[in-house]
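pinging the channel bc i need a second pair of eyes. not urgent but kinda urgent?? the chain im working w is below, pasted from the shared doc
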Amino acid sequence: MTIVNAVSRIGYMTGGTAALWRDEDFADVLLQKAKTYISKQKTSPFFLYFSTHDIHVPRLAHERFQGKSGFGPRGDVLLQLDWTVGQLVATLKANGLTENTLIIFTSDNGQVIDDGYKDDAVAKLGNHKPSGNFRGGKYSAFEAGTRVPFIVSWPGKMAANKINNALFSQIDLYASLAGLAGAAIEKGQAPDSKNNLSVLLNQSQENRSFLVEQSLNSTLSLIVGNWKYIEPSKGPKINKDTNTELGNLATPQLYNLADDPGETNNLAAAHPDKVQQLQEQLARIRQQQ
């Protein structure tokens, strides 16, 4: 089984000044190392984790992409990211690995437009809403902080263009991929990871039993089914550096994500029993750590 996580860090550079990176070459250098690795490993099972610099700040696309998007450096590196993923997929195809490769494309957090680098990203955003109808962004307790793109592809093994709305966490990749590979997980390893391989392969839409989320200032949220509880917090309401709504409130918050994915209607006062239930469950989870 060939497993590729298409969103790597392969090796490192040595040699002092002669080995300094030129930031605009990040994508090309990492891509070439990944392509070489795939070609060398094509007759053996392998796992490739490709941690692209795009679109993290500072956003410095190669000259081939500079000025091509019309949305400044942020838009240019998005074009570069799309091209990079395409090159990885083309490499798999050239090596005859397409139908024997599981590809997972995802992100580590929700969007942030201005993270300290003034590159006109906000000014050139226009009417585009990177978080869609979700509230908040990176650092936030709201859904736009932790609900991220998650695209899975395995030609011949999975149906294409099919959406799965099941609750799944990136930490479940550990147990799920171990299950796929037939590998045992030793006691004490990855205790929070659940084998949700059937969801990963889009064979089931069964939610994990619960999910705990943590925001910038350690505010915890608990999702169980369609319900999301955000614990009371005295933290700031807005991250002024990024203009992100953080979701902190001195009183409990309760949202029904099925009816209100944008978390606009706090139902805590209307459902005190549900608030108490989730408060107690979160407290028990804390005690297990």
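so The helical segments are 26-41, 72-94, 143-146, 172-181, 197-200, 272-288. and Strands lie at 2-5, 47-49, 101-106, 150-153, 211-214, 220-224, 227-230, 238-239, 244-245, 253-256. — does that match what u expected or am i reading it wrong
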